[in-house]
Amino acid sequence: MAVIFFAGCTPDDRNRLIPGDYSEQPGDPSDDPSDPPGPSDPPGPPDTPVSYSWQDGIDYIFDPDALSEFHLEVPLEEWNKLLGYYDADPNTEEYVSCDVTYIKGTETTVIPNSGVRLKGNTSRRRPENGSGGHKTPGTSWNHCHFGLNFPKFVKDDAHTLCSTKKLYLKWFKDDSAYAREVFCFDFMRRCGIWTAVNSWYVRLYVKVTGDASETYYGVYQVQESIDKPYLAGRADKGFLSDEGNLWKCRYGAGLNNADESLFGIDDSSTATPPYELKTNTKSGKAAAYAQLKDFIAKVSGKTGDSFYQWIQQVTDVDFLLKTYAANVVVGMWDDYWCNNNNYYLYFTTTDTYDYKFFFIPYDYDNTLGTSLMMDSGRQDPLHWGNDSYPLIAKILSYPDFKAKYVAYLKEMVASDSPFHYNAATARIRAWHSIISPYVSNNTGQDMTIADAPASWGNHGEYRLLTDGANNFFRVKTATIEAL
User: Is residue 66 part of a domain?
Assistant: First the structure.
């Protein structure tokens, strides 16, 4: 019998729980594991374990030895609200109430009256086809992204999952390999990039109250939210505190235009400004705007020794170069340098001039050979993007910074690195062995694991697990080794 906890967790045996047998769950595939297709490979270099303990609860939720479950039960009235919000505006950020049950091994945690909403940008979808209210029986379900906010409606310490307040549940849109974003964040953490979020696999079930059974949504990615708890959990790593200014940066955030019309705040509206302030949104808004405006003006305006000295005062240039080298290694083209998109900035204070800033990597599903705008395997890492987005290009114009960047690139594809073909493919195959029995699902979408990039990409030839001239890990390594 499972042990049931209400909005909490036990401190014992948190790191080595094995998934239980839930074969009677509706829509659950067979529990008999099978190896994914693909050629066998010789053993790679030893796989260094990753630390998953940035904050209380993170090591419990993002446990690489467990395949946990989220069960969301949404009252019919609340589900219809969710559908109605989407129909009124697909970019809605409105939450509805649901009961969350989290199962890990023999342990069950129940968090009643939690908040759930739809998430995503171009990947956002209605969770069931049609219009109007919930259609049952015969619902036509869609994979979509969900955001969980446990204390959204009941603001107490009990409404958390092991002290974690928010989580992101992502379907593997355009990633039939079920691996790209999980790999990228895992790779970054293995490289010591502590700003990378935690990410792992879960199984997701959704039930609208009154339906005959749950709907099994399949294997999802659970991802850490970039918010104040994320900042607080890394205070001892370099953020110092969670009191500074955190900005989510979308398309148009090129750090080359300080016009405040590009700025906005997180106010639960459907606006999507290029720079969206996520902390200090009330009394601290004016100071945050002044700080970002001055920062952008200096990034775009300073040159020569003035920029060289200033950039070292306001950031750890070495760590920034390491982060960006990892970004380029995994082939992230929809990023700051190429497409002025998909990153966060954190300023450690609210002072206009006295702070350290950190570049936080974000949204890595279109990587490892899935690309547009470039050949992400063969593109010159020294000319990765558009130099009109000045931050990285300016830094690399200084020989000592360029040398550090190149050194990081080569270190990250060395024969003993986690990106090396043998180590990378062994890790992905191991993940596939865990999730493959559970990929088939009640939506009828994304039902199998396949080694191919997104169909809309410009280089459909890339593969991850098949050796040869089009293997992304080998192509990328050769490109960097030629520098």
Answer: yes
* Cβ density class 64-102: b for 16+ within 10 Å, e for less: bebbbbbbbbbeeebbbbbbebbeeeeebbbbbbbbbbb
Q: Which domain holds residue 103?
A: 3-38+55-225
pTM summary value: 0.90
The answer to the question of residue 400 being in a domain is yes
Q: Among all chains, which residue has been given the structure tokens 């935690």?
A: 198
Answer with the one of 378, 395, 412 that is the final residue of a domain. 412
Residue 195 has pLDDT above 70, yes or no: yes
What pLDDT was estimated at residue 30? 32
Q: Which of 432, 369, 381, 361 is closest to 187 using CA atoms?
A: 361
Is residue 343 scored above 90 in pLDDT? Answer: yes
Residue 7: what pLDDT?
54
Contact between 440 and 218 under an 8 Å Cβ cutoff? The reply is yes
Residue 365 and residue 371: Cα distance in Å, rounded?
10
Task: Let me know: does 361 contact 341? Beta carbons within 8 Å.
Answer: no
In total, how many domains does the chain have?
Answer: 2
Q: In whole angstroms, what is the distance from residue 306 CA to residue 313 CA?
A: 11
Residue 437 lies in a domain: no
| End-to-end Cα distance, the chain | 58
434 in any annotated domain: no
